[in-house]
Amino acid sequence: MTELPKIAMAKPPQGIEKRRSIRVELRIPVTPRWEAVKGSPVEERTETRVVNAHGCLLLLKAPVSQGQRIELVNRNTGNVRGGRVVWCGAIEADGRTRVGVELESPDFDFWAEQYTAFLQWSALQKPKATGGSH
Predict the structure, then answer these.
(1) What is each CA distance from 53 to 30, 96, 129, 134, in whole angstroms?
(2) Start-to-end CA span in the chain (Å)
(3) Which of 20, 48, 79, 95 has a 20 to 30 A CA-CA distance from 130?
């Protein structure tokens, strides 16, 4: 049985108050690919920290810039999606930078069964409306 992930409760970057889809803490192996400043291709094996249908948070060693186009390869499935860097945050103790990536178009299936299983479970947890008065 698939283990259900935790809902991410991390504080969003300043200025962002609402999310378009549920954020879930999931470690999914990905390989982001992009062009460096001098035009040479860069790719780095890493994993996500938080995902939603619109993108993810991950940690990168190599530098990227806000607005930069990036391609993500989900190594579990081989699925590839284009996106862009929307946020570069704090540098972790290991020297990697926290990076927010937005997918070109929302894709609930890109993160595979872990994310969709959580959404299905979450929908079942909502209280059911009662039809009558007591």
Answers:
(1) 15, 24, 27, 40
(2) 40
(3) 20
| One-letter amino acid of 16 | I
| Ramachandran category for residue 115: left, alpha or beta (phi over 0 → left; psi -120 to 50 → alpha) | alpha
Range of the domain at 53: 6-10+27-121
Tell me if 26 sits within 8 A of 3, measured CB to CB. Answer: no
Q: Which ranges constitute the DSSP H helices of 26-128? A: 113-125
What are 125's two structure tokens? 């947890």
Tally of structural domains, the chain: 1
Contacts of 8 (CB under 8 A, 6+ apart): 23, 24, 25, 50
Q: How confident is the prediction along the chain (134 residues), in pLDDT tens digits per residue?
A: 444 444 443 444 555 445 567 778 889 999 999 998 788 999 999 999 999 889 999 999 999 999 999 999 999 999 999 999 999 999 999 999 999 999 999 887 888 766 565 555 565 566 655 555 55
Q: How far apart are CA 85 and CA 76, in angstroms?
A: 22
